[in-house]
Amino acid sequence: MAPAERIVIENCAIATVDADDTEYATGHLVLAGDRIESVGAGPAPEGLTGVTRRIDATGHLATPGLVNTHHHFYQWLTRGLATDHNLFDWLTALYPTWARIDEDMVSAGARGSLAMMARGGVTTAMDHHYVYPRGTGDLSGAIVRAARDTGVRFTLARGSMDRGESDGGLPPDFAVESLDEALAATEATVREHHDASFGALTQVAVAPCSPFSVSTELMKQGAELARRLGVRLHTHGSETVEEEKFCHELFGMGPTEYFESTGWLGEDVWMAHCVHMNDSDIAAFARTGTGVAHCPSSNARLAAGIARVPDLLRAGVPVGLGVDGTASNESGELHTELRNALLVARLGPHREAALTTRQALRLGTYGGAQVLGRAAEIGSLEPGKLADLVLWRMDTLAHASVADPVAALVLGAPAPVTASFVGGRQIVADGGLLHVDEDALARTTREQARRLARS
Ligand SMILES: [Zn+2]
Fold first, then answer.
1. Residue 324 CA to ligand 1 centre (angstroms)
2. For the residues 117-131, what does the mean pLDDT come to?
3. How remote is the CA of residue 20 from the centroid of ligand 1, in Å?
4. How many domains does the chain contain in total?
5. CATH of the domain at 36
6. How far is 216 from 344, CA to CA, in rounded Å?
7. Any idea what DSSP says for residue 363?
8. 361-398: per-residue pLDDT in tens?
9. pLDDT value for 1
């Protein structure tokens, strides 16, 4: 076997986000192949062989790459619409447009969403895609190819909707699949794209959309399918008071009880939002190891409420961060969610004790790795883990006078990304994407957004 090529990074502050929150004021990282070989204080060990590159990272903070745990890429083409609505009114306004997407539009939306996140320090992305109009091409394949071309690690949550208006659901009937179509297509997507190996670039989860757009049968059979195939499960849950009311009216129970009754609580499940949860809901998540994708900006944009993140964390529930679709979070950036998660939590009952700056960084890194089931591979800077990391520039006007680099990253302006690596492969340099023509992509996304608006 050829000796691993090494990249040495030195002279930067490092927040490892390991179990002890180990930090170095000035330290080094050695990357060997796709892994982190060493991380520590001061300069790298002497006498390393096979060093192909040395990076003097003076003035930077190194952190694990950010992990996004909830998104809808296609919404990149429908930003800035229904801007003053709550969730149900916003969905009802947008479903007819979303139902007209095709493969070219989905590809452009995915590439736009991925580019924006990657430039902002995301190294692991996910897309919960649940709109599959008939005869519009290979939408899942287009999304997977977009992630591969951008260079990020990726989970495709193959979504589905089969409860249209005539079955008491929220989406129009023309926007939904049948139960059998949804299950068969989901299984085919897992078989085609899911890679279970250590360091996988592409994984697939089974992801019916939400209680108000999916039949009870699809929830149950979706959970059985995921467990038969050995993949994770994802959906939306407990997002708004309207959803809570819907569940009580239709199922005679709250969302968490409904999820439990359909097989949707467990270590292999993560759920977006989880805003309206009582103490027994939180205890059920903790008991079963069910994870949460917290999306503070989207929750604020849609007036959903403030998720009880401090209570979830204290109960031991795994919590990561999500951008959510860009039709409800137009910026599409995850690094701003670190700040928003902290600020929003402190507006709640725990006030200044709600969340520390380090906990905010942990949500966006290790917490995300946990809910995606990949905490053994990514989410912290430790020897043996994959070399997914970001060098944030902290010596410009925006951050140079901030005393603490982690506080600068979490509380300050969005920090420029000097370099970002996925499995040791660099995908961002000096704030720009290395494997994507951003100007051409901007034109494509604009054209496809116009096509969708006209269709
Ligand atoms: Zn969502």
1. 5
2. 97
3. 32
4. 2
5. 2.30.40.10
6. 33
7. I
8. 999 999 999 999 999 999 999 999 999 999 999 999 99
9. 56
Beta strands 60-64 and 6-15 are parallel
> What six digits make up the tokens of 59?
């003035």
Q: How close is the Cα of 354 to the center of ligand 1, in Å? A: 24
> Residue 335 Cα, ligand 1 centroid: separation in angstroms?
18
Q: Tell me, in angstroms, the distance from the centre of ligand 1 to residue 267's CA.
A: 20
Cα of 169 to ligand 1 centre, how many Å?
17
48 alpha carbon – ligand 1 mean position (Å): 46
**Torsion angle of the four alpha carbons 223, 170, 328, 126, in this order, in degrees rounded to the nearest 10:** 20
Task: Express each pLDDT in 75-92 by its tens digit.
Answer: 999 999 999 999 999 999
403 alpha carbon – ligand 1 mean position (Å): 36
Tell me how far the alpha carbon of residue 317 lies from the centroid of ligand 1, in angstroms: 20
- State how far the alpha carbon of 364 is from the alpha carbons of 114, 214, 339, 409, in Å: 16, 29, 10, 12
Both 222 and 136 in one domain: the answer is yes
Separation of CA 327 and ligand 1 centre (Å): 10
Please identify which residue in the block is written with the tokens 């054209």. 447
Domain-terminating residue out of 345, 372, 399: 372
Asked whether the beta carbons of 29 and 36 are under 8 A apart, the reply is yes
Same domain, 167 and 303: yes
Q: How many CB atoms lie within 10 A of CB 12?
A: 25
Rounded distance from Cα 396 to ligand 1 centre (Å): 35
Say if CB 365 and CB 379 are below 8 A apart: yes
Residue 443 covered by a domain: no
Same domain assignment for residues 219 and 245? yes
**Letter for the amino acid at 301?**
R
CA of 272 to the centre of ligand 1 (A): 6
Task: Kindly state whether residues 297 and 332 are assigned to the same domain.
Answer: yes
